[in-house]
């Protein structure tokens, strides 16, 4: 039977997770409700149904059922998924506390420390991930990486092509890159103009007062 001490530990842990780690770093109020709700809900259900014979099976089954729930209201980032399942894990550890109290406290502390370190703002700050829409069609992987590095002013580690439009001369690519040491990436290089004589070049030259900005895949019109 679960005593009051693991329940109190869970309340303290989820409070720290929500109001000391997640909200100060990400400022998403609606997920605060989700974190608190899933933790308290799992805690209540696991305490009500746990026993010496079915406790372990219940915990694994409940975790498996909740892990396949797909939240369709808004898309969750990977870091938010980590917070969500950590709140779930804290509820299970507190509700199915068949271990000594010191071990329950240690497991909860381990979850909090893992999130504190893994989501720390100073951890891997130079590594970025972006969805970039280039205003030129590139089908060669080597040329694509070179063009991304030239425009972003950073070292590209991975580039996954989402879409190449040979008519509109655009390339949509998901890129993971590393900015130079010491701050933000340098100003991007001027964009490619594409192959001479292509429909895209003809359309650009035929539109008066239109210039291509140096940023990735943007076009601005001059005021007349």
Architecture overview:
This protein has a three-stranded antiparallel β-sheet. Strands 4-5 form a two-stranded antiparallel sheet. Strand 4 (210-212) and strand 5 (219-221) form a beta hairpin. The chain has 224 residues and is α+β, with helices and mostly antiparallel strands. It is built from seven helices and five strands.
Any descriptors?
224 residues, alpha+beta, 3-stranded antiparallel beta sheet, two-stranded antiparallel ribbon, 7 helices, 50% helix, elongated, disordered C terminus
Strand content: 15-25%
Number of helices: 7
Mean pLDDT: 76
Helix-strand makeup class = alpha+beta
Strand runs, count: 5
- What is the percent of helical residues? 40-55%
N-to-C order of helices and strands: HHHHHEHEEHEE
Spatial gap, N to C terminus: 78 Å
Sheet of most strands:
3 strands, antiparallel
As residue ranges, the low-confidence spans are 185-189, 191-224
Across the major sheet, the strand order is 1-3-2
Characterize the overall form: elongated
Question: Can you lay out the helices and strands and say which pair or pack?
Answer:
Elements: H1 4-26, H2 29-49, H3 55-67, H4 78-95, H5 101-118, E1 127-134, H6 141-152, E2 155-165, E3 170-178, H7 199-206, E4 210-212, E5 219-221
Antiparallel strand pairs: 1-3, 2-3, 4-5
Helix pairs in contact: 1-2, 1-4, 1-5, 2-4, 3-4, 4-5
Concise summary:
The chain is α+β, with helices and mostly antiparallel strands and 224 residues long. The chain has helices at 4-26, 29-49, 55-67, 78-95, 101-118, 141-152, 199-206, and strands at residues 127-134, 155-165, 170-178, 210-212, 219-221. The longest helix is centred in the N-terminal third of the chain and has 23 residues, at 4-26.
């Amino acid at each position: 039977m679960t005593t009051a001490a693991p329940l109190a530990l869970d309340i303290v842990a989820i409070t720290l997770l929500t109001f000391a780690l997640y909200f100060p770093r990400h400022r998403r109020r609606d997920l605060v409700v989700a974190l608190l709700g899933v933790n308290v809900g799992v805690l209540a259900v696991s305490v009500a149904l746990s026993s010496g014979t079915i406790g372990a099976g219940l915990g694994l089954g409940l975790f498996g059922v909740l892990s396949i729930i797909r939240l369709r209201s808004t898309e969750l980032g990977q870091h938010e998924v980590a917070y969500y399942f950590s709140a779930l894990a804290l509820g299970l550890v507190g509700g199915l506390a068949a271990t000594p109290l010191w071990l329950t406290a240690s497991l909860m502390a381990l979850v909090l420390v893992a999130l504190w370190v893994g989501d720390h703002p100073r951890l891997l700050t130079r590594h970025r991930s972006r969805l970039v829409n280039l205003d030129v069609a590139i089908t060669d992987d080597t040329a694509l990486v070179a063009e991304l590095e030239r425009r972003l002013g950073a070292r590209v580690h991975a580039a996954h092509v989402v879409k190449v439009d040979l008519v509109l001369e655009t390339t949509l690519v998901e890129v993971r890159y590393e900015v130079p040491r010491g701050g933000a990436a340098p100003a991007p290089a001027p964009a490619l103009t594409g192959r001479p004589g292509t429909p895209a070049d003809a359309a650009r030259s035929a539109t008066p007062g239109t210039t291509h900005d140096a940023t990735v895949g943007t076009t601005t019109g001059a005021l007349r």
